[in-house]
Design brief:
By secondary structure, the chain is mainly beta. It has two helices and eight strands.
Length: 181
C-alpha cells in the first residue's frame, strides 16, 4: 500500500513538471508583477497508519518566474492516545521542509503543487515511555486558493509527508496573507 501511494504521488508531480510551465499562467493572466510573496496559515486534520489528529501550520512562499519556493512548518497531534495498548504508537508529528513547486495563476484562482525535502520529528509512545524519532521526509503540498483581494486568499491544502517512520497526509483550511495578486 505504501509503495502504491508513493508511486501515485511521484507520478502526479512528474506529469505536472512535464506538462506545465511555471510562467505560462502568469503571463496569460496579464499581471505585470510576477513576484508574489505571502504567508499561509493552516488548520485542519490529518494522520497516517494508526494515527489521526488535528493540526496546523505556517508556510512562507515566494512566487517568481522560476517557480514557487516555500518553507513549511506543520504539526499534527493525535486526538486520543491510549497508553494501555501494548504497541508503540505515534502521538504527534512535526515537520520543517523546503519545497519547490509549480502553479497556475488566474485573477481569482491560484493552484499549486509542491514537493521537496524536510526534517520530520515523530513522538512515539509505548508502555516503556516516550521517545522522539527524527527522520528525513518528502513533503507534498497541493493548494487551491480563491484570491479576490490583493493581500488575502482563502483556500484549502492537501498536505503530506512520505518518510520511513510515520508518513501522513491531511486536509487544511488556509488563509493567505501577503502579496497574492
Amino acid at each position: 500500500m505504501r509503495r502504491r501511494n508513493t508511486a501515485f504521488c511521484v507520478s502526479v508531480l512528474s506529469i505536472m513538471l512535464v506538462t506545465n510551465s511555471p510562467t505560462s499562467a502568469q503571463s496569460e493572466a496579464g499581471n505585470d508583477s510576477p513576484n508574489l510573496v505571502w504567508v499561509t496559515l493552516a488548520g485542519g486534520g490529518g494522520g497516517g497508519h494508526r494515527f489521526w489528529g488535528i493540526g496546523g501550520g505556517a508556510t512562507a512562499s515566494y512566487y517568481c518566474e522560476s517557480g514557487l519556493f516555500s518553507v513549511r512548518l506543520l504539526g499534527i497531534g493525535q486526538i486520543t492516545v491510549e497508553p494501555s495498548q501494548p504497541q508503540t504508537e505515534t502521538s504527534d508529528v512535526i515537520e520543517l521542509g523546503g519545497m519547490y513547486g509549480l502553479s497556475y495563476k488566474r485573477p481569482l484562482i491560484f493552484l499549486s503543487a509542491s514537493s521537496g525535502l524536510g526534517a520530520v520529528w515523530v513522538m512515539q509512545r509505548s508502555p516503556s515511555g516516550r521517545k522522539r524519532v527524527t527522520t528525513v521526509g518528502i513533503p507534498l503540498d497541493f493548494e487551491a486558493f480563491f484570491t479576490p483581494f490583493r493581500v488575502l486568499g482563502i483556500g484549502v491544502a492537501v498536505s503530506g509527508n512520505i518518510n520511513g517512520k510515520q508518513s501522513y497526509a491531511g486536509v487544511f483550511f488556509c488563509l493567505q496573507l501577503g502579496k497574492v495578486k
